[in-house]
Structure formats: C-alpha cells, structure tokens
Amino acid sequence: MESVVSELEGTLLKDPDPFSYFMLVAFEASGVIRFAILLMAWPILHLLDILGMGDAGLKLMIFISVVGVRECEIESVARAVLPKFYMDDVDLGAWRVFSCYKKRLVVTRSPRVMVERFVKEHLGADEVIGIELQVNRFGFATGLVKDDIGLILNRVKVYFKDEQPTVGLVRPHPVIFHDGRLVNRPTPSMALLTLLWLPLGILLATMRIIVGLSLVWRVHPYTISRIIGSKLVVKGQLPPPLSSSNSGVLFVCTHRTLMDALVLSVVLQRKIPAVTYSLSLFSEIISPIPTLRLTRKRNIDAEIIKKSLSKGDLVVCPEGTTCREPFLLRFSALFAELTNHIVPVAMTYRVGFFHATTARGWKALDPIFFFMNPRPEYEVTFLNQLPMEATCASGKSPHDVANYVQRILAATLGFQCTNFTRKDKYIILVGNDGTVSDSSGIDHVRNVVSIFKHSIHIQDL
C-alpha cells in the first residue's frame, strides 16, 4: 500500500512552534493563572531553543501546561478547542501532497492526545505518533513524558515501511463545531496582549452591562451602542408594532449567542419573550426580557408557544443551540406548524478577543465575555414576512417551510446549511448529548457524508 509520513509542526502546519497550542491547553483546561505562568516562561523556552536544547524546552513547556490537569480535560480541549486553531494554520499545499497517499502517518512534537483527533478527522491521517504523557492512577497528568522525545523516530521506523506513493487529491473536512473562549491563537505577543486586556475587559464589561440595562428601554439602540462602545448594525425593514387586531409574529432567528433575543428586543424597542431550552437559572433571573423554558416534549412545547403567540410576538431560534462558524444547524420544524406569521431574522456577531458562547463552561458568563471585547459588534438583518404561499397555509409541510427559512437565512449571511443538530454538536464537543455518554453517536457524526446540502430533510425532533 502507498504510504507517507509527515511532520505536523512546520509541515502540515505552517507554524513550526507549538507554543500557542500549549497556551490554549493551559487557558482552557486550567485557567488564566497557568496561562500567565506559561507566557512568563516563554523567554526561557526561546533561549533553550537557541542554545540547541529544544527537547528540554519542549519538556518544560509540556510540564507547565499539563501538570496536575486531568487527562479528560486535556482530551476535552483537544476535541472542542484545538481543531479550529489547527485548521486555520494548515498549509494546504503540504496537505495536498500528504493527501495523495493511501496510508498516512503524522509525526508530532506535541503530546499525541492533543493532535490525534484533529489529524485523523480533518486531515485524514491513519495514525499519529507523538509524545505520550504520564498519567497517575487518579487520572491526572504528571507533566512528564513516558519516552524520550528522540525515540519518536524509532517508533516511526517500526510503523512505517518503504512504499511507493501515488498521486491523488481529496477535500479536507471543515471544522464546524469548536469551543473555548479565545478568538485568536495565543502566540506570545497575542497572549501578552490578552492578559494585559483582561482586567480592563472585566471592568469594561461590568460598566457596559450596568449602563446598558439601565438605559435599554429608555434610549434609542444606536445611542446605547455608542455609549457602551459597541457597534449595532441593522438591515432590512423593521416590522410594524403589534396591533390589537393582529396575532403575534414569530421571529425566527439564527442562533449565535445567548443574547440574540435580547438584541432583537433592543432593536425593536419592546420586550419580546424568547423561547429557551437550556438557559441557566441565573441568566433567566437577570434577563431583561421574558423567557419561556421549553421541555423538548413536542406536544407540551407546542402548547406553550401557541399560548404565547396568542398574547403577542415571540422569538425562537430553531437551531436549538449556537454555532460560531459560518454554518446553520438543522432547523426544527415545530415553529412552522404553529403560525403562518413568520419573520426570519439573520443575526451574527463579531468580536476581537473572547467568544460569547461555550458548550463546556459556565454559560451565564457568555454576556460578560461578549462585552469584554474592545468593540463587540452585532448585526441584525430583518427579512420580509413569509408570504402565505411559503407557509403551511398553502399546503406545504412544516419540514419544507423550515428548510426554506434555513436556506434564505443562510443565503443572507453567506453561510452554509448543514443537517447537524444540537445533539451532534454536544457529541463532538463534550463526547455526549449534554446528558449521557453516547459513543454510537460519535460514529454517527463521523459517518455524515455531506454537510454542505442546501436542500435537506428535517426530521421530527
């Protein structure tokens, strides 16, 4: 069988220095203190590399990054955070050559647990040879490695045999789901900038939230955004206020952050209730708008939504969970069954330092991290209300209506439609659907053949 061996750092990845990825592990698996310690150690690591003692520097970097960290936490970061940053650093030219071979082996100077998932699922590697971490019987990394780093080449010789390559080309698998708070890969300079910004960001976020909540219903939204140093972009024709003779309008939104419904209410300058599934109790308590917690039991949820619509407008995000990348998850068809007064709203956001969503952390902090960014931006685009011929009133199935709304919202944002669901997201990011372990679900996700379909069938939830 034709085969190839390739180094990861500096070959498949443009950057030969894995430091920034260890910084991500330190921040996401342990916190800001370990992140700062590793950054302060960077001059020593760099000096060791200059003196030809790169292996010693690498061992020190590994020790600082993972000592005392649970192995499952390292695996969680490798699953949910690192793939996004690795993919951004891929050298496509080198990868095309790598992909020409049938049997593909990747050699890495990083711990195998950090890179294995990415290179197998996104680069198509068959095997990974890297540093093996020592883990004690309680599941904590000792910070030491099992074998000498120089012995990696011996393991390659055992695995890899002389074979003639052939030419071929395939397409890489994109990263759709990823987690973690950091937007930028923490290179030494970016990590230092992030640490310096952190205390100012916390103070700024606190002031923004206090001022914003006190003025939200009293001042024009553009004025509020200028006062708190954010940016609000509104496109499309805003729908008229609800009249006493009209039933409520259902605003069907893309789901980017916890604040989608609040931003929509601020733009329309009225408190519109929002449908939620897994909002934290703390977030419900401090929410400036009413929230309706659904049960994920179809009949009960339908009655809750119908009752709310009989009283006025309502906001729903049929994806059921957030997605950071330019993709839309599968839309639940339930909303299409309950009303013909549907206004699609395309929502997206842009930040500089910190993401405003997480699957693994405390979600109540999402608004705080959003406002910790220097100039956070939200963009809201109102589409026209669906004509009756595009709703179930014309005989269309709820699935067809949901598919159509998903497609027009994706087209508005320049996103791609997928058939992935909330459960798929949590299987990929945390290893289960948010409640129980489901290894068979992982196999299901890995066997999804096409994620770029613009016409998909939405199954009943």
Automatic annotation (TrEMBL):
This is Phospholipid/glycerol acyltransferase domain-containing protein. The chain crosses the membrane at residues 20-45, 191-217. GO terms for biological process: cutin biosynthetic process. It is found in: Membrane. Residues 249-350 form the Phospholipid/glycerol acyltransferase domain. It comes from Aquilegia coerulea (Rocky mountain columbine). InterPro entries: HAD_RAM2/GPAT1-8, Plipid/glycerol_acylTrfase. The keyword Glycosyltransferase does not apply. It is a multi-pass membrane protein. One of its GO terms (cellular component) is membrane. Belongs to the GPAT/DAPAT family. One of its GO terms (molecular function) is phosphatase activity. Keywords: Membrane, Transferase, Transmembrane, Transmembrane helix. It holds the Pfam family HAD_RAM2_N.
